[in-house]
Here is the input.
Amino acid sequence: MFVAPNGNNIRSYGQVLDKAYINENCGVSIDYPSDWKLEEKTLDDATRPVNYIVEFQPNKDEGFTSIVGIELDDISHLSDRSLESIRTSEERNITMRGIGIIESSETISVAGHDAQKIVYTVPGENNDRFKKMEIDVLAFNREYKITFDTTSTDLYQKYIQTVEEMIMTFEIDEPTFEEIAC
Here is the structure.
């Protein structure tokens, strides 16, 4: 049982990752619980700088309140494609206009590649803050972004164990495509 900062007990829902999502065109794979649903978002538009690949969410009565997403961003046009540069840019986007508050930002390794993990909150309803996590993985001259988007800190705590286990299974193969669309 997890005890939240506000003193409430929250049950942790670490779930068995018994299904695999594989997108050979984008060169990504990740395991997820079979009781979660997925929706592929891949677009065949190479002119777009971002390609949303897939979203996963618990198949619960909570609706669209907890989503794990994977996207592919074209960073080839950037003069500085270093992890430090990406971190600075992402943190600036999060804190723009004083809206987002970064709780932590750390360099990690995902699928054998350098990555930046940023946990932050944004204003929500009823003075609550929506807790989110973003992991930016740099590989093959592209940015693979894994996001965990929730509508409350309680839901974040409820599913974070499962999401972190999903991220540990994330794999990236060298892409065979030239443009961002895969």
